[in-house]
Amino acid sequence: MTTEPCIFCRIVQGKEKSYTISENETAIAILDINPFSAGHTLIIPKRHVTWWYDMNEEEVHGVFMLARDISQRIMKVLHPEFVAIYARGKRVPHTHIFLIPSYGDSPFDKFFDALQKFQESPEDLANLRRPEVMNDVARRLRAETRGGG
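Now predict its structure.
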């Protein structure tokens, strides 16, 4: 087992090349080296944290404020239809927020179109839309206190 810092930690430390766009006290914005579309950007917290929901409040604020700023820049400069956002941390175990500009018939849009069709079709997923299931999940999530309790 290696104790070598992850690729994103090395980028934050300036030990790896990156196409850095901007940064703030808690996060850095870099172009993804394997982009889904022109302008595909990663927002990375500077502290090593695997999952976005484990970031502290300052990091959440910094990461998502930077994500909004970069998304607005992408819209102004590259003119996509919109900028999609989602969070990861699985393949590279360091939270990274994807900002993916959508230019219409892009592979990323096709993926989400297929995912949406999948979401609307299988019986197991259709059952998740039943009012009693939705009410139960909403009740359970409302009852859960912040910090687990």
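The mean pLDDT is 85.
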